[in-house]
Amino acid sequence: MRAEGEKKVLGTTWKMALVVPLMFAFVFVVMVPLYNLLCEVTGLNGKTQGQYTAEAAGSVDESRSIMVRFVATNNEGMSWEFHPTTELLRVHPGAENDTTFFARNPTAAAMTAQAVPSIVPSSAAAYFHKTECFCFNQQHLSAGEAVDMPLRFIVDKDLPASIRTITLSYTLFDITPTPTADKATVAALN
Amino acid sequence: MRSRVIQLATLALASLMLLAGGAMAEEATKSAGFWLNMPEGVTAVSRDVYALHMKIVWICGLIGILVFGVMFYAMIAHRKSLGVKPATFHESTLVEILWTVVPFIILIYMAFPATKTLIAHYDDSEPDIDILVTGYQWKWKYEYLNDSGEKVSFFSNLRTPNDEIHNESPKGEHYLLEVDEPLVVPVGKKVRFLITANDVIHSWWVPAIAVKKDAIPGFVNESWTRIEKEGVYRGQCAELCGKNHGFMPIVVNAVSEDEFNAWMAKKQQAAAEIRALMDQELPMEDLMARGEQVYNTSCAMCHGGAGEGTGIAPALKGSKLATGAISDHLAIVVNGKPGTAMAAYGSQFNELDIAAVVTYERNSWGNNMGDLLQPIDVANAKKGQ
Amino acid sequence: MGEHHGPAKGLSRWLFTTNHKDIGTLYLWFSFAMFILGGAFAMIIRAELFQPGMQLIEPDFFNQMTTMHGLVMVFGAIMPAFVGLANWMIPMMIGAPDMALPRMNNWSFWILPFAFLILASTLFMEGGAPNFGWTFYAPLSTTYAPPSVNYFIFAVHIMGASSIMGSINIIATIVNLRAPGMTYMKMPLFVWTWFITAFLLVAVMPVLAGCVTMMLMDINFGTSFFSAAGGGDPVLFQHVFWFFGHPEVYIIILPAFGVISEVIPTFSRKPLFGYASMVYATAAIAFLSFVVWAHHMFTVGMPIAGELYFMYATMLIAVPTGVKVFNWITTMFKGAITFETPMLFAIAFVILFTLGGFTGLMLSLAPVDFQYHDSYFVVAHFHYVMVAGAIFGMSAGVYYWLPKWTGRMYNETMAKAHFWIGFIGFNVTFFPQHFAGLAGMPRRIPDYALQFADLNMMSSIGAFTYGFSQILFLFIVIQTIRNGKPVSDPKVWEGANGLEWTLPTPAPYHTFATPPTIK
After folding, report:
1. Three-class secondary structure of residue C519 per DSSP
2. Of residues C157, C295, C408, C418, which has the active-site annotation?
3. Catalytic: C69?
4. Catalytic site residue C369?
5. N or C: which end of chain A has fewer CB within 10 A?
6. Rg of the Cα trace of chain C?
7. Which among B284, B306, B297, B312 has a CA at the least distance from the CA of B345?
8. Please, is A30 exposed, middle or buried when counting C-beta atoms within 10 Å of its C-beta (0-12, 13-18, 19+)?
């Protein structure tokens, strides 16, 4: 009788104890990827999608034009000069557009930077396709070096008619002193 | 029988007092500005929000009177000291279903206006002006995006002097809610705020226009307003962002469109003038005067009003940095010091201000280096020459 | 397992005890010590806020105080206090001889003091204690944190382990050690609420552990879960934290619901109204707590669909919560009520918790929350729920069961004084904060604009009063243990019902060695 009772107690205990690592793992293997997926689908935080490969050259919607505004911000401790070479671009949905961002490392040491994109309104994020972006890679600049970084994008023809202006913002982070960022998470972002 | 009458009278009195309390709070709110209640505000959205707020207050108030009324009635009428015998009932399916369903209906009734207001809040299409708002530890930066010509952007710092905060002089009317340079917007125009942050999460909150949006480093949030009434509207950072979270107010100055255009023209002209100054040789006095201004708004908080240093940042008075090689001094100001509170001011100040503040730091509080920097030196140094 | 022997003597009794009553006592005293410590932090906060201007402390130390106050009160005072009650009462209420896992019980208590020793020691470290709020949002708590953050993370891990062990123990006890005839739907409501709370704890404490582990990795091992620079996202932190944090607030309040559901029937001399609906409502609240977390983050810029979903789901919580309040009031209705101290606390609980529920409903409306969020309105709201809810519930429970524990009656006059001073002090403290928040005062600021001065002074006076009332509480409890009037009636209270009241008073060291039979 007593032994049987103890067995039952142990059974409950192990079942409950099993929940603990499961919930712990849940955070890492479910919540984080799920959140990233949600971001990608809904444009949460204005996060943009990764590299876009254009299907067979689509037609261009000449009937409307979208104003695309570029904004560059330096995060704290980032001393690079960083700005869009063109601040405003009027584009047709479906057309491929080119622009560049200028960056210069004014310091006396080589530095590495990561640009993080964000789109406003966030409902436009899913319709903004980057075929090439400097934000896909880290940027290494030696002391005093300057570079024009390319950005090529297509605004989707399915962009809701209510959206007439898209603001694309890049925040530049200094990632030099810390160990290289986890490549997988960078990939997840892009 | 008599005790019954007294009970009912007490109950009626209690409900009356609750109602009177509510009415008095409203009255006090009207007469004393808005210090007891949410401000009604000066935009269509803020009025909707206020109306929703008052509606839910009254609904809760009425439910409260009803529920507590029954409770107090029981507490008065069903006391053991009155010799009552306790009943034994302990369930009633009908009553239980009823008080599940009725609150549900009230909630649905509340959900409609709330949804409508939220959708209005989210309708950020077709703005007339875009302003990029960036939260810094511990100040706000405003950048007007829609104008042509010179770019207009500036920091908005707390203006309340340290001695008011430390109770050494009487506090002014707008203590802690005043800035050196307010955000200026025209009334009647749809102004869209693109909100981000430079370091940690901040939150941009101005109650009178019912805008509160988190400023998140790396990401841009948006919100908008269309202010209907000219005036000065004050707010504060609403997300804990470190030491001086309580000391980064927001002041919005809503002016007529003409006034706004004039202000914008003046700001653009000033920006052009600063650009012109960049290439000039400035005399020591000008640099010192400008440097003092810059120091007091941006450096004194951590380095102390007289360069004596605080717990956060070292003294500059007599320091190795401010009395050593000028190029090292400049490099620290421009590039910051990683791992400390010293930010890279190269991206926050223009060349003129950097030249001025370095000059000031080297020639004040007993530091007497006699050397100075010109804006062009800073520009060259930034280019790595 | 020895036969009926009494407790060991001296310190080793407490160090090595596996007796549920001893461990319950340890938990209760520990939580009271933490309550005083967290209260001391609160007094420092309110002293600084007594007048506008910086008087006593520096802004950074102020932030350390708000952070430590929150952490100590939530994890050190309220949660262990209810675990203490659970340890004492659950075996006695279900007719079990002890907890199911007595040795683990000893462990889950004794690691707790170390967690708080580590946490408190951060106050003396270089760079100071955690200063990023008890919600520790990244990146303020990662990239910008003081070095003590690693100790904070370690402490949180230990607290989590303690809570998880405690909860598993409670579940194992309730599932396996109920006396014959004690079916689930016959269990006292306190047991039920704790049963559900324990499941919540087992589910979400590992989430908190995961959350702080991610922080630890970001800070020390170069990952970027919460840093945009490496492809992470600071908002992810808030989602993970509140996925833990929202169930956590129900973890805190549900056991208090249980206590109130025991006290009100006793002093109304009438069975609890709607027992079954109470159980279902508790389960519904627990379930809903997992799907409403983002209502804490309406201002982070979620898509409108997200805002609407979290708004509607949150509003729903009002339904089961309402059911509970209606049930308590109907229990009182047509009873024969007396107003002993536990009942006073229970009645105050119902009123003040309902007020906190009203403001909760207000906060659930997303567009209006844009005004309330992170203002003193929120501070007022959650103190109505945490203090007038959890702490008042706890006080009711202590006065209710103290005679059973000690065999002595507390001094009713002094206890009533404790109640009234505390009740008035509490309301003077927190009621004005609603208005300060509505008028635009953000939370967690060490200094404020002049229009908030009167309200803050009131608040501070109330806080000192409330703080004093708790010293009185300590005095009353000690005085009861030492010189209280002896009670020997097993029932203690005329209207009391339940297995614990069939035991002798004071409850012997070992109870229900042979299980009672419930008809």
Report:
1. coil
2. C295
3. yes
4. no
5. N
6. 22
7. B297
8. exposed
Sorting pLDDT into bands at 50, 70 and 90, what band is A129? Answer: confident
Asked if the model's pLDDT at residue A81 lies above 50, the reply is: yes
Predicted pLDDT at B28:
52
Q: What is the distance between the alpha carbons of residues C312 and C282, in angstroms, rounded to a whole number?
A: 19
Cβ contacts of B212 within 8 Å, gap of 6 or more: B203, B204, B205, B206, B238, C299, C370, C371, C373, C374
Q: Is the pLDDT of residue B46 over 90?
A: yes
CB contact under 8 A, C233 and A35: yes
Determine the average pLDDT of the residues in C217-226: 90
* A58 pLDDT higher than 80: no
By 3-state DSSP, what share of chain B in percent is helix, strand and coil, each rounded to 5? 45, 15, 35
The answer to whether C174 contacts chain A (CB < 8 Å) is no
Name subunits touching C (3+ CB pairs < 8 A).
A, B
Q: In this complex, which of A19, A32, A179 lies closest to C236 when CB atoms are compared?
A: A32
Three-state secondary structure string covering C462-494: HHHHHHHHHHHHHHHHHHHHHHCEECCCCCCCC
Q: What is the pLDDT of residue A189?
A: 43
Choosing from C21, C246, C373, C434, which is the catalytic residue?
C246
Active site includes C321?
A: yes
Q: What is the pLDDT of residue C135?
A: 94
User: Cα–Cα distance between B173 and B171 in angstroms, integer?
Assistant: 7
b/e per residue, A95-111, with b = 16+ CB within 10 A?
A: bbbebbbebbbbbeeeb
Separation CA C159–CA C208 (nearest Å)? 10
- Residue C194 pLDDT > 90, yes or no? yes
Cα–Cα distance measured from residue B284 to residue C37, given in angstroms and rounded to the nearest whole number: 56
C408 catalytic residue (yes or no): no
Using CB atoms, pick whichever of B134, B222, B344 lies closest to residue A73.
B134
Residue with more model confidence, A55 or A7:
A7
Would you call B344 and A47 a contact, using CB atoms and an 8 Å cutoff? no
Name chain C contacts of A39, Cβ cutoff 8 Å.
Answer: 233
Please state which of the ranges B106-120, B289-303, C14-28, C135-149 shows the lowest mean pLDDT: B289-303
Average per-residue pLDDT for chain C: 94
C250 is catalytic: yes
Spatial separation of the C-alpha atoms in residues C470 and C59, rounded to whole Å:
27
Note whether C332 and B75 are within 8 A (CB): yes
C194 in catalytic set: no
Q: Is the ipTM of this complex over 0.90?
A: yes
pLDDT tier for residue A63 given thresholds of 50, 70 and 90 = confident
Across the interface, whether the CB atoms of A26 and C233 are under 8 A apart is answered no
- Taking a C-beta distance cutoff of 8 angstroms, is the pair B257, B189 a contact? yes
User: From the CA atom positions of chain B, what is the Rg in Å?
Assistant: 29
For residue A21, the distance in angstroms to the closest alpha carbon of chain C comes to: 7
Do C63 and C137 touch, CB atoms closer than 8 A? no
The predicted model gives B81-85 an average pLDDT of: 90
Whole-angstrom distance, CA of residue C196 vs CA of residue C279: 9
Neighbours of chain B (3+ CB pairs under 8 A): A, C
State whether C332 and B107 contact (CB < 8 Å).
no
Name the residue among A46, A71, A177 with its Cβ closest to that of B132.
A71
Chains that touch A (3 or more CB pairs under 8 A): B, C
Q: What is the pTM of this model?
A: 0.89
Contact C168 A173 (CB under 8 A): no
> Given a cut of 60, is residue B297 above it in pLDDT?
yes
Q: Rounded mean pLDDT of A173-183? A: 59
- Average pLDDT of the segment spanning B119-123: 88
Tell me if chain A has a CB within 8 Å of the CB of C233. yes
For C354-371, give one letter per residue: b (16+ CB within 10 A) or e: bbbbbbbbbbbbbbbbbb
pLDDT tens-digit series, residues C427-447:
999 999 999 999 999 999 999
pLDDT at A178: 46
